[in-house]
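Q: Convert this sequence to structure tokens.
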Amino acid sequence: MDDIKINDTVDITDVVCPVTFVKAKVALEELEDGEILSVHMNDGEPVQNVPRSIKEEGHQILKLIDNEDGTYDLLVRKVEE
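A:
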């Protein structure tokens, strides 16, 4: 994935909204400022809602990757408030 160093990954394909965002948020909270989280999620509601919610929390969306299998990987940089 380009030259982006991923510090942690969370798989939220087994949960439904709004738990998808909660799991992603908890994983982000465990990272240091500036570190990168990869969020593996299903197409549909998670792809529509999780990036928006993370951005509203003040974090930086780096890339949304379509895995072409019904899942996506969202790369997020943690930004301290």
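The first strand starts at residue 8 and ends at 11.
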